[in-house]
Description:
76% of the residues lie in helices and 2% in strands. By secondary structure, the chain is mostly helical.
Amino acid sequence: MIWELLGAHAPALLLAIPMLGAFATPLLGRIGRTPRNLWILVITALTFVTSVVLAAEVYTTGPVIYTFGAMDPALALAGDSGGIPVRIIFNVDAMSAFMAVFASFVGMIAAVFSLPSGKMESGRDGYFALLLLLLVGILGMVCTGDLFNFFVFLEINSLAGAALVAYRIDKGVAVEAGMKYAFLSTLAGLLVLFAVGLLYGQYDSLNIAVIAGRMQFGFLDKVALALLLTGLAMKAGAVPMHFWTPDTYSMAPSAITAFLVVASQASLYGVFRVAFSLYGLTLNYVTVGWFIIILGVLSMFVGVSMAIPQKDVKRLMAYHAVSQTGYMLLGVGVGLAVLGDPAMMESFGLTAMEGGIFHIVNHAMYKGLLFLTAGAIFYQTGTRNLNKLGGLGHSMKWTMLFFVIGALAIAGIPPFNGFASKLMIYESVFAFNPALSIIAMVVSILTLASFVKVFHAIFMGPKQERYAEVKEVPAPMLAAMAILALLTVLMGIFPQQIVDIVISPAAGALVDQGSYIASVMGGL
């Protein structure tokens, strides 16, 4: 009975569970810290299980439509709708389900890591409530089939994220970073809202599938496309709109930083959904594809170049996050650039997209792991300055091991997951343009050099007297890092199985605009 209810209403429960959890957390906090922490674990675990149930249904039976307020939620076009989907609709295909699963998983890991990380700080009830609201925003963005609701969930994502960035205050520095993130997010949200208004004015609908079916790609459509891509690329942290990432990622609590990476990837998902599902073949896919490719190359090169001279370990990792976003843009951009050529699409375009999408989840795993190791180091030493660290390998052996796994993965060293997705990108992009592939490989070499420097600065050398009392972090923090480290290894050892089962259907769903439209309008 419970499983039937869960299966039938999984899209709604996916948001309802963390939303209920967020609003009830302050009440549980009044009872005590232990009941509140158990509540957070239960809520994030239930959200993850719901996302897995939803994904299982999508991957076995096809896209899931859920119409809020309808007698039959599975029917997009109700009898009283006049053939137009007027209610709020979730359109969950394989790409959406893929994003929902790994977002809810990283949210759960961030919650586990947060349990002891701020035990001496106040405001923990608000912290966990905001974390759950951030999860709501991300899941709503990747599941909705409605442009205006995409904007609403983007705003929830931004507001919760900005408040969490400013959580530590830190003599006003964290507040400044939070305000910068809020300003940037507001600007990006306005661009998206203007674009939504332009499209609604032309097509009398906010539903993505309906607009895609009517798309003419006239002048206003092109303006809307430019606004959407600019706003979402800004939120994703792509160069040259990446200026907010170092301050935001370095000042946020480390568990939140790991989760903000996923929040940025939800915006990246928005870029891909707009390009493939909303516009598809109607746009000049070669031009837009090259635009995304150039953003990707700039992000890779500028990100790694800015990372190398950094002395703050989290700022360094933040720039590397920008660099890794470039790989995703490069892979999917190549797929978009050859979208209209079936031969090239089959030869290497789809593989490039699969590599880019695979890199999204791999990046969430190893970059999340690296940010958690940085958080563990800050938790025990109180500093992120590489010049003040050293010799921690003597007392934080597990953290050192997890850092090494994350560092080798981000540098694309086998057998870790970063190598698997980067290899797919290298090979497919080489067939499209060898120079782009060579740039991607050079960036990986620079990434490896950067993390070798960080490893030596933090863990090597004799044990320092000022860190004589330093020991390993509490068990929940180690458990969170261990889970991400294990997945980083397993996803590198069994990449083909993951690509075949999860990634290929997601890439196929993104390319197949006709099925996306038919999943909603097929009810006519």
